[in-house]
Structures are given as C-alpha cells and as structure tokens.
Design a protein that fits this description.
297 residues; Glucose Permease (Domain IIA); two-stranded antiparallel ribbon; 6 helices; 2 domains; single chain; alpha+beta; globular; ten-stranded antiparallel sheet; Membrane-bound Lytic Murein Transglycosylase D, Chain A
Length: 297
C-alpha cells in the first residue's frame, strides 16, 4: 500500500471517529435527547382508564340483573343502561340473553335523527370526551343502531324511563309521579268557573320536581304560553306528541333529540294555575287522548 493511500485512509478513519463521538453525544442515543420529545398515555394518566372494557355474559336460568351486576362489580343502572336494546323489564331477564358488561361508563345506541351533540347533552358528558373515547374525531356521520361508549356515565335515561314506566317498557312512561288532581275530559275550569274540556291530566307535585320525557322524541316547542306558562312539546313517532305545562324551568332547546326518561324540566306554577303541578297531554295527529289510557299503572 502506498504512503499516500495510507494517509488518505487514516484521514477518513479520523473523520469517522469524530462523527461517531458527535452522534453519540448529540444524536438520538444520547441520554439528554432520547427522552426530550417522547410521550404517550399510561395507565395512571387521567382519562386513560375511561376506555371501554366490554365483557359479554349469557344469562343463566335463575339469574337476576342484581346478581349479574354484583358479580361483575357494576351498578345495576349501568348494566341496564348498556343493554337497552335487549332489556325491557327491570324485574326479570330471559335466560340466554347476552348482556354486555361495561366498566367505566355505559353503551348508548344511537336513535334515528340523534346527533353526537344530543347524546353529549343527554349524559352531561363533554362532546370531546365522547369523540376521544370512540375515536370519532374524523367521523362526519353517525348512524341509527351504532353503539358508542359514554365514558364516566353510571346510568342513562333508559333506566329512569323503565322506573317511571313501572319497571317494564310501555308506549309512554310517567313524566312525574304524584296525585292526579284533575283528570282528562269535561270539567269546570278552576279559574274561570266556566264549563271546560281538560285536554290532559294535572299531576300534583311540589314545585321544582324533575320532569322526565314520557317517550323519546324531538323538542318542537320550548317556551312560554299565556295558559300553559312555561311549557314543552315533544314530537314522537306515529303522530304522537306530548305536552308538559306550568313548568318552573326548561332544560331543553327546540330541535334537541330527547331520550325517554331524560330530565327535560322542573315542575312549577306558571300560567293559569292554582297551585304547583304538572299539566300533561298526549296527542295523536293533533287529537288529545286520555293519558291515563296510555300510561302504565
């Protein structure tokens, strides 16, 4: 090997050694750099534990909802809420039914016409948390029947609806529970003293009592009326509408989709009223029906 070639090789070796030292000190292998821009969630991070954990359980003969909830360490309300599509009774469950056991939240089945904003408002959970938990940040549309995880929720309006319906699904559930102070039909108006036809029922409850939607639907009126006072009208399927009058507080807005059993207002004494109560009507294609014929016992 010539002297010139040896000098050239030694020079290249020296440059490689210098570059290697610099790479170790300043590059990705250095202790000062390799942790500077790294990250990611860990099990202790806030929100990480709110990812869904779903187990399927087939109901065995003799099992109750209370027993199943206790076995898996979830509230009965959460168990019922996550299985609204397969449950219709709080007291019994058919053997062979497959239930979804969800931790850290509940599952919600999307209704036709329902938006993610509606769902977030229904559960009182920030929309951003629902988007993150279900990886929906890039979704433009949601579809009826899809199930989404609601992080942190322990119950749903469906559980309240079943309670207000006497434990079993029915066409309508009670909006409040109280004494019927005036029934549907002909009567003497309590204020004018004139013959009158009462288009609904009056349910006597203390002012400020929670008022629940008797059926899933959309808010078409949320405002004030000279007779009804503060009132809400919901539109349901098959031409049905329900009206809630003499309210002290309205908790929904026009156009919002409402779940059956969702709190929509508080009872009051506004409008033409002689005392705190809820005026409740059920109409079909504009014709008033006797609510007592459609409500559960």
């Amino acid at each position: 090997m010539s002297r010139a070639l040896r000098i050239l090789l030694l020079g290249w070796s020296g440059l490689a050694l210098i570059f290697g030292i610099f790479w170790v000190q300043q590059g990705p292998l250095s202790s000062s750099a390799k942790f500077a821009a790294q990250g990611g969630p860990t099990a202790s991070d806030e929100g990480f534990a709110l990812t869904p954990q779903i187990i399927e359980h087939q109901v065995q003969p003799g099992e109750t909802l209370e027993q199943i909830a206790a076995r898996f360490g979830v509230p009965v309300a959460a168990l019922v809420s996550s299985n609204a599509t397969v449950l219709d009774d709080l007291r019994t469950v058919e053997p062979g039914t497959v239930l979804k056991i969800v931790t850290n939240g509940v599952l919600h089945a999307v209704k036709r016409g329902q938006t993610l904003t509606d769902i977030a408002r229904t559960y009182g959970v920030p929309l951003t948390e629902i988007l993150w938990a279900n990886r929906l940040e890039d979704r433009k549309y949601i579809y009826p029947g899809e199930e989404f995880f609601i992080p942190g929720a322990a119950t749903s309006p469906f559980f309240t609806y079943l309670q207000m319906a006497g434990g079993k699904k029915s066409l309508f559930a009670w909006p409040v529970r109280g004494v019927i102070s005036s029934e549907f039909g002909p009567r003497i108006h309590p204020i004018s003293g004139e013959p009158d036809f009462h288009q609904g029922i009056d349910i006597e409850v203390p002012e400020g009592t929670d008022v629940y939607a008797a059926c899933a639907g959309r808010v078409i009126v949320a405002g004030r009326h000279s007779g009804y006072g503060l009132y809400i009208v919901l539109e349901h399927s098959t031409g049905y509408r329900t009206l809630y009058g003499h309210l002290s507080e309205i908790g929904v807005y026009r156009g919002q989709f409402i779940e059956g059993g969702q709190r929509i207002a508080r009872s009051g004494n506004t409008g033409n009223s002689t005392g705190p109560h809820l005026h409740f009507e059920i109409l079909q294609y504009g014709r008033p029906l006797n609510p007592l014929a459609l409500l559960p016992p």
